Records
---
Amino acid sequence: MYSARITQTNPSAFIFLLDQSGSMEEPVEFLGSRTSKAEAVALTANMLISEIIHRSSREKGIRDYFHLALLGYGNDEVYPLTAKASGGSDVEGFMTVSRLAGLDVRRRSYTRERRLPSGESLLTTTEQKFWIEPRARSNTPMYKALTEGFALARRWCTKQSHAGSYPPIIFNITDGEASDADDKSLLAISESIRALSTSDGNVLLINSHISSVGTSGPVIFPCSQQCPGNARHARLLYDMSSPMPESYNDHIRRIKTDGERPPFRGMSYNCPIESLLTIIDIGSISINLIQ
């Protein structure tokens, strides 16, 4: 399980659900500079897309090892985050890596501060393509976004040509609670998502709650003993999220304290925005299975 090799004829998929509600305008420290949550999340997601394209590049061009669906939610709407909602993929709503790479999108430079072993700071400037643009407006229709994520994942998994593929991974990145559903409804749609599968395993739903200034310590890929039972929203996200497969355990242990044992949940709560880079990096280790 969760071991299918990823090829052009046996691809996998990522689905991004990005909270773009009004609270995403809040400022945060990210990569050594002050920006908004919306800008930081967009940059993080765009960096992952660049990495996927890089890992899919060969001498004769970009190979379509992955299909991606990129959705934002805010202002009571769920909408595609790219100029075209789909293209190249055999499933509506997804784009192939090569089609994404060929889109004409703007480029932006960002500066990243890194700490050297000597204690000195090193500033590096990198140019990044922005397939996903930051946005922040109004409410948080998370239930509607998860429902669309379920429909996308179901269409992808039920495609006969994907029957033996590595299952899709859904990243839901948010800074607040849903404005369009109660806990029972959110748990129900999350359970429906996690029940979808290919022969290689169930769809993975990873929920990441980001914070500008945490009121308590962050919880990242918690085990059952670590999840704060007195924080209702943290408990809800824990119950919504997928238990992480054994193949992820070693990667997760590297960022955990001693004594925490699996199974771990694909969830984070109250985490600083820079931790999102680590969470997505671990959640996307399926790119290591490219053949």
---
Amino acid sequence: MRRNPFALAVVWLLAMALALAEAAFVLGGAGVIGGPEAAAWRLEAIQRVGVAPAMTDWMLENRSLPPDLLLRFAGYAFVHDAPLQALFVVVLVAGLGRTLAARMGGGAILAIFVLGAAGGGLGYALAGLDAQLLVGGLPAVFALLGAFAALLVAGQIPAGLLRVRALALIALAVALRVALGLWVEDGARWSADIAGFVTGALLAAVLRPGGWRALRGRVRHG
């Protein structure tokens, strides 16, 4: 199946945006750009875009949706705690994105990345398992992984043993993420990744080719 050039462009733009944001933090921290104050760029960005349970608590209590708080649910995915984390996310976005580009449009991939990040952030905040600020693109990466899983289940990935192995690997990746989060990591960021995975899978079920038509058919005959 030929890849959609526009979808590929969206993938590379996402990867570049993530890489450029991290490059600015690294170069600023090294004193190459921005002057003395640039050393604090990463910390300032984390404070500006990080997601925390207190945010959703405040919005629910006040029945208010301030734009600056809503933007955090997408913006946090472009700020990372460390360069290695950012590199890991960029590589996975490029790899998963290129695979999805063969089967989905650029708008769908962008929606899955952004709304998957938002779903991950919302799940993390509502769960209230960790008071720390959530940053990083892993929930968006898991959303792309969830979308890939949805395509596998829908039969839009080549059939046979390849599909079975891919589903097994995805299940293993999700299980390992939960295990690492529970027994190794300090905090509950794993809850954001799992919420992102579920969000991506649900979105892909609708945004995949023929997905909306299939959903309408089920509603009509349901």
---
Amino acid sequence: MHYDPIKRTLGRVFNSTPVLRKLFYFLLNVLLLRSWHIRRRIKQWAVSAPHNASILDAGAGFGQYVFFMSQLNPHWFIMGVDVKQEQVEDCNTFFSKIGKSKQIRYTEADLTQYVSTNPVDLIVCVDVMEHIEDDMVVFRNFSKSLKTGGLLLISTPSDLGGSDVHDEHDESFVGEHVRDGYNKDEITQKLLQAGFSFVTTYYSYGFWGSISWKFSMKYPIQLLTISKLFFILLPFYYIILFPWCLIFNFIDVYKYNSKGTGLIVHAYK
């Protein structure tokens, strides 16, 4: 499964006006379980964060986390980095239209080569590392880009079924992934070797979260790859299943998962 064609289709639909773009962010935040986990952790960090904190969203994509963080504190400066030029241009245009060009700046860069010229307080990296082969180079760049005491927050698939891979014969659900998922000990050791002083990890997408993902994301995406006509049916599909997905997401975020197909990682410099 390749997400990029679907992303481009969604982009054409929701990028026509700032109002639709904000609606798109809202839908992503509600449907994507990883967004629930990441936004909760950012809010916890924000309690003791500097008033004028600087933040790097590494692999910022559509910009939903950049927008979320800009709403939390208008004094934070947020840099979004993405390897795709069209994504960078699109986001700079959108944030300029809504009057946030002084607070938010997007730049095109490859994370294997990018180091922030001004060290930042927080790096957010959501579902990016599974796309990068040379992860140690990126982890070292993250460490160089952080201030002492700064936090790196990562969301990535785990090796317990991440990318929808459950045994050696399964193929990744996402064709762009170069690895199916991280082992908790593996990513901890890599981050410590890269220069971080303290690392904690916990599982996301446990039993209930995995069910929510299948009904809120996997099955709809599979239908859309068959025919774009399923866009017409999606509202009716979600009317039926949306309340259940909300409940399952809530359970996953606030209940301890002994195992899960996703990992949330905190690494402090």
---
Amino acid sequence: MVSVGNLTLGGTGKTPCVEWVARFFRERDVQVAIVSRGYGAEQGRNDEAMVLEENLPDVPHLQDPDRIAAAGRAVEELESELIVLDDGFQHRRLHRDLDIVLIDATRPPARDHLFPRGTLRESASGLKRAGAILLTRCDQVPAGDVAALRQWLAARWPQTPVATAAHKPAELVGCDGATAPVESLAGKVVGAFCGIGNPYAFRKTLEALGATVTAFRAFPDHHAYTRADVDELTRWADALPAGAVLATTQKDWVKLRVPALAGRALWAVRIGLAVLDGEDALAAALERTLASGGREPPDEPT
């Protein structure tokens, strides 16, 4: 079992990392299942599950507050060889072979505080349990800040491999399977909205693509959109300048599934994880989980 988790209440970008890890093992012909608690799930599937289901159609995703029972079903009923536990760092009742802990480079733990004063679920000392650390959103802070964070981690946990990553926009997704290159947002006026843990990271992503974000709406994380929300967003979209593009995250889009608002096409930005540095060490840690399970890792992905 590989756990992908963090120290904070959310917003570190776990879903793209879970997808990256699951894809890593599928490329090695390992039968993988994803297990999560399912925060905000309705009828057994929340936004994260729907995104992963869309991007990884051959990887089952079991959501259950009883993650031990879900893991058991994954092994016994689905014959899974490896489980990726989503948001499992604090769920210590399940044995795992590797804990990958994500740290958002824009919110380093040394500058954060325990909830409710800050966003930390536990103190940074909990990183002693990590088998690997992945710094996310490293493209959104100066390189010196990333280097300082790596030095801070190395001084305390020198044996723990640290990799850096960015959440890169992969493509725009619309209704009926339509896609468009993310570069098409360059120079465009954009109205954007989302309900994720770190909404302003999404705004920065759009701005980094060259979009001018003229209006932005942030909803609570895992927001369940209602008919009233759609009506309000329609009025909001109608007030945007002529020619403005409507954009949201894939997590929000899979819940809305509306082709347009106020006659404007709605596009979702599909995000993928790009490991910038330390991928070899991270891959080696993942390969060791195969060996610990009695399976010889392949020389090359199949």
